[in-house]
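User: Fold this, then the next.

Assistant: Folding the first:
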Amino acid sequence: MGARTTRGLGTAGFARRLLLSEYFILYLTVGYFAVMAVFFPELASPRNLSNQLSNVWPLLAVAVGQTFVIIIGGIDLSQGAIMGFVSVLGAVIVTTAVDPALFNGSPIWGLLISEQGGLLAGAPYGVVVAVTLMLAVGTLIGLVNGSLIAHLKMPPFMVTLIGLMLFSSTAIWLTQSQNLVNLPPEFTQLGAGDLVSVYFGEKVEATIKRRDILPFVTNPMLIALALAVAAQLILSRTVLGRYIYAVGANARAAEVSGVPVKRVVMAVFMFSGFCAAVAAVIYAARLQGGRPTIGSGSALLDIIGATVIGGTSLAGGKGKVTWTFVGVVFFVLLSNTLNSMGLSAFYIDVVRGGIILAAAALDALRTRLLAREGVG
């Protein structure tokens, strides 16, 4: 009886340590991949891995911004709308040709776009201007969101929900729900380019493609990882990072302690808008068009889901970019396997919603267990 009890306690203790470990989602991701690869061998093929990684990078970019917002106890529902809106703005600048049959009813027809293209179509620095404008507008929208929340004490949910409705509708209105295509190759390379042809030549690239293998080191990968590394350094190595955690843990106590809470909130939402714009650049370049609906549908579910699954607490005060990265990988892997099962979009969304709910419940359980043990 004693041996059984000891083994039972040992198993329970191991499960408890595993549950409380900050690497729990990493273990879960590796285990899930190993099991699913048995049933779907193509899951581990180089081409499939490369394709799935291409889905990771834009989602990681926007989820990094959502991580900051959730750490301070907020939420940003406007990120998807920002992505669609700024992708349209960027395309308006550099598109090289526009179909009049599709856009002659648009309010910007003849003013910002014409049959010959956008404002800077074919200009040497057109792509630089377009990307700069996209990043600036995304950051500005985040500033407006943050200012309303910080100075007027409006709930983040309400402010960003209004932003979601406003900017998604504006993007659709400006384009009449059409996609602005014919983007120059200098722009599309940001979403599909790789280092193979640059450093090893076109012959090596052709060989890789002939063997049905896609390159792993791509421009979106470098952009997203650079953003993620910079964000993690901000959280872990700067005064601003300590302020962000303090605001999320207890905003009132942080303010009493001298933390500039209003400026921190504004900075976080500005960064969230900036990250959404970075993701918009990657998505628009990859899809070769400015799409007003680029962040609609289940995109918001993906963004928040990946962040929460990674371990960032909806209660605020806890989260890491490294956790978000693992959450993004798990969420993309989950979507890939669900699609491989041949499930309808409805059932896929139901399963993903259930996973997010389970992640939120798990976070509440972990918080309670840690509180009992007097940890964190």
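Now the next one, as you asked:
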Amino acid sequence: MDRLSATATIAAYNVEKTLPDLLRRFPYDAVDEVVVVDDGSRDETARAARAFPVTVLQHGSNRGVGGVIKTGLQRALDCDRDVFIIMAGNGKDNPEEIPRLLAAIHDGYDYVQGSRFVTGGKSENLPLFRRLAVPASALVYRLLTGFQGTDALNGFRAYRLSVLNDPRIDVWQKWLDRYELEMYLHYKCLSLGYRVKEVPVTKSYKHFRSGDSYSHIRPIVDWWSIVRPIFFLALGLRK
């Protein structure tokens, strides 16, 4: 099988302290381009990224992870890539595990979800709220789609870009600007019969010191943006 071309996009918002370590460990030979999307950072995230062999794209203001994914997807489409990978730039994801996601794509899967809970995965210092929220969300998706997934909230993922050719999938809708897009694509790939697989990855919170924010998610407002795609799509209220 011919090698598939791939773009890896790193979501970066105020991560000048964690981004250099991630980029030092990145398996550059596994992908064709690494794109760091600086989502309106107020620190030196973009400068830190430019010290490495990556493409830096900057948002003039903070648009959220949905905006980052859209920017990364557009870059990958413009470069005629086959595969799109998305991961966090704050140190929670391990870039050395990217080959695991790509191997599953090469095996014929359309969407590969990283999971800290399948055999071989690892969760380090998972905050209490997420210990409850992650299994609960996985259960909801199992009930709605039948897919026996374990980690629907893990944003470390790979997609075959041909999925976007499906007229039933429209990632460019404005209501998908923030956390909605990750869950939208997750639900669509599961419910429309695409080949989906979870692969083991590490999710680590151990480098966050006491008092540090491990997430930019705002209570209530952002959790609604995470869960509302489930309601809108399951009830047929949105495309």
